[in-house]
Write the structure tokens for this entry.
Amino acid sequence: MPILTKFRLDRARLAAPQVFESLREAILTLELVPGAMLVRSELAGQFGVSQTPIREALLRLEEEGLVEVFPQHATLVSRIDVAAAREAHFLRRSIELEIVRTLALQPPPGLVVQLQAQCALQESLAAAQRYDDFLGADHGFHRLMYEAAGVMGLWALVRRYSGHVDRLRRLHLPTAGKTGVIMRQHRAILDAIDRQNAPAAQEALREHLSGTLSAVDDVCAQHPDYILQG
């Protein structure tokens, strides 16, 4: 089993949520690739905890479809389910089309400046080819819009269902020119909100969110061992 590289236990917090967050990040960034075996005893040793928080974390990951638990046998990182990715995309698009419309009709004070700063951060991360951090900044851009619209509960909902589509995006991101396309699309969304042009904001968002799934056949062809297609 791979040794995880980005974890430090905060003894002031419960262990199980931290283990869950760390394993989830490792799965979404493909540090733990589809098909990787997760051994509870080895994970407990790596995290420096008992097997109880490991078990709790794996159950949560199973609920999100990110691991498959075979009792008395093994726990494996799940393959990327294209059908689940399409459902998550449908949910996110439906919510965010209304969010950008709301924000464009009446942009909250300071939002445009915050989004501009997030775009600048993404540009620096893209230049350094720091893809995992780039995706984190991408999520930050969208999170700012949910926060500005006052619907952070929906952000939590979208993130809970995003595991399969996020992994597809991570596989697609190194494609030549992909980060540049994402940044141009973010700028288009930002510009439309700034101009208070709701239809343009929705159109820019629709184009932005269509990117990875429009290329899903290419991603699947390049990584067939990682993909589950119904």
Observations:
- The first strand starts at residue 37 and ends at 38.
- The two ends are 28 Å apart (CA to CA).
